[in-house]
Amino acid sequence: MFHIDAPRVGSLPAGAGNRITDVPGVTVGHATLATGDVQTGVTVIRPHPGDEFLNKVPAAVAVINGFGKSVGLPQVQELGVLETSIALTNTFSVGEIATAQIRQLVGRHPHIGRGWPTCNPLVFECNDGYLNDIQAFSVSANDYLEAYRSAASAFEQGSVGAGRGMSCFSMKGGIGSASRLITGGNQDYTMGALVLANFGRLSNLTVAGRPLGRLIDKENRLAGNTVMSHEPEKGSIIMVLATDAPLEARQLQRLAKRAGAGLARTGSVYGHGSGDFALAFTTAYQIPAEAHTPAPRIALVHESMLDPLFEAAAEATEQAIVNALWSATTVSGRAGHRRLAIPEILPEWRELFERTIL
């Protein structure tokens, strides 16, 4: 189900589904709006099936280039936990989705903001205004709830949810996901990645070390696309890493930074106008919201043993970006703008890869 035929990057084994939900307990859901000039949506990542506010998971954020308007990052940086789902949407819908997250939690726990502390919504964004009429403010609280309720281990990638209107390397981008397994040592772990890919200059696109962007640009295969590779890099990417390795928040921040290595391998230079954010969380244990509930005692991964996790984070992120490109479908939207999907532009990619010697 939802099989993606895309180039394979790296050398580490993938999980059974090759997606972030290979990490036990993690689920993903979408709500997609695709009518005329409205090409957008929302994607929700749930870290576990329980109550995110009562049972928080350790998390950390890495800001690679801070040209962005996300909500909730300072508290994650300060306290090192998630207390809502992770939501992805377009730039102008951040406020609507943040309010929906707050209303959802207040509905469950009326003491929030009164006898209890307030809650911290967490919404990441990218600007899909090339394909989507972002000024229509089309994404609603009901769309967030639809994505949240539909979250499952099997989910679609590409031009869906928050990825519906996104562009990547002057082609169609969107949602991509991958996983890698860390084996050997005392215990095996899973690393999952999900990206909202909306970045990059065509001429820089590199896939598994091959300069595909230059080939596409040279042969003018994007005829009819308005934005070409001579423009400066702008746009954004959101990278979410999940793992079942027992890490604390400081270690998770180190892990989140390694998503940038996977991003760089695809040809990004983190341009001035590119908002590049990474969040990492672990499902290995939960931190109770209420002080009278005992906190877990966890044996953390030793600092000297983090390198395999770093490698898996970089590789899973790189693969997730590739999967976003190859699972996307061509989309036409606002003002007749169009983004072509790379399998349509380069149908002979497999033959090309086989004859290219690195």
UniProtKB/TrEMBL annotation:
Metal-binding as UniProt keyword: no
Organism of provenance: Pollutimonas nitritireducens
Upper classification of the organism: Bacteria, Pseudomonadati, Pseudomonadota, Betaproteobacteria, Burkholderiales
Keywords: Aminopeptidase, Hydrolase, Protease
Keyword Protease (UniProt): yes
Family label: Belongs to the peptidase S58 family.
Name of the molecule in the record: Aminopeptidase
Pfam families (alphabetical): Peptidase_S58 (PF03576)
PANTHER family listed in its UniProt record: BLR5678 PROTEIN, D-AMINOPEPTIDASE
Gene Ontology MF terms in the entry: aminopeptidase activity
